[in-house]
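Narrative of accomplishments. A recurring question from our advisory board has been how the design workflow behaves on a single, concrete structure rather than in aggregate. To address it, we present the structure tokens for one chain from the evaluation set, followed by the sequence designed for it. No filtering or post-editing was applied between the two.
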């Protein structure tokens, strides 16, 4: 299975609609792969909080229309990164969209862990409550978004649900790029699964983006890593490698669940 991670530049001089159409055209260029992955909130910018309400859209809004058509035109599975979703009740969510090669939206994942420490995304958006996996013909993928990467319990739950790899779109800041690479490798090693971590580049509302999208294999080895410019990474993924890793080093079988915390001395 061939997958392409598209590290998209978010330029404040480019309108959301122009970027939407440009990215759709870039997706159509990936006709020789099976899966295309886009970053978090690439239409508006992950740190462009002041634009969230204005650019929010329903699940069947303009980004859905553009991405569904791009997926069907190209005949690829498309993880279209995430959008600012406006739900029917008016609540905003950071929502990832996944399309089949026929252009059908097969699932949507609302980001569970919101970043901001009582500011920004954490106050402007609702929290998702439901982990999601999507079964492709070759590989079952668990879905996570950016800040989710810091919470290993989500990835363990996705592994228990059958995930052999994780897709992590992000708008990760450059000042914490070391954490981005470290955490992506950690989630791969501890779950013996692929991690496909797709970031933006450019600057969102004055926040420089890390870039450095990467693909990590089930042993924690980095198969490919981007730089800081707009770039496409294309890699081969093999579900048999996940199975072999878990059989050769069956650490997942040795998990001890429900361990009680130590009691304080009386």
């Amino acid at each position: 299975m061939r997958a392409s991670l598209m590290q998209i530049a978010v330029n404040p001089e480019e309108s959301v609609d122009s970027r939407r159409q440009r990215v759709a055209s870039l997706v159509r260029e990936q006709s020789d792969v099976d899966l295309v992955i886009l970053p978090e909130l690439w239409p508006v910018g992950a740190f462009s909080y002041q634009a969230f309400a204005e650019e929010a859209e329903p699940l069947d809004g303009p980004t859905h229309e553009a991405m569904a058509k791009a997926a069907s035109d190209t005949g690829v599975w498309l993880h279209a990164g995430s959008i600012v979703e406006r739900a029917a009740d008016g609540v905003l969510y950071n929502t990832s969209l996944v399309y089949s090669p026929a252009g059908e939206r097969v699932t949507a994942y609302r980001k569970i862990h919101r970043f901001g420490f009582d500011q920004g995304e954490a106050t402007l958006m609702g929290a998702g409550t439901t982990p999601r996996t999507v079964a492709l013909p070759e590989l079952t993928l668990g879905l996570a978004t950016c800040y989710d990467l810091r919470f290993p319990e989500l990835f363990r739950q996705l592994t228990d649900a059958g995930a052999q790899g994780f897709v992590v779109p992000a708008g990760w800041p450059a000042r914490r790029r070391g954490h981005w690479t470290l955490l992506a490798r950690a989630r791969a090693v501890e779950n013996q699964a692929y991690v496909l971590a797709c970031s933006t580049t450019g600057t969102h509302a004055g926040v420089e983006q890390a870039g450095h999208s990467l693909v990590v294999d089930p042993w924690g080895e980095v198969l490919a890593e981007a730089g800081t410019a707009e770039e496409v990474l294309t890699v081969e993924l093999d579900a048999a490698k996940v199975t072999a890793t878990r059989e050769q080093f069956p650490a997942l079988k040795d998990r001890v669940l429900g361990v009680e915390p130590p009691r304080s001395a009386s």
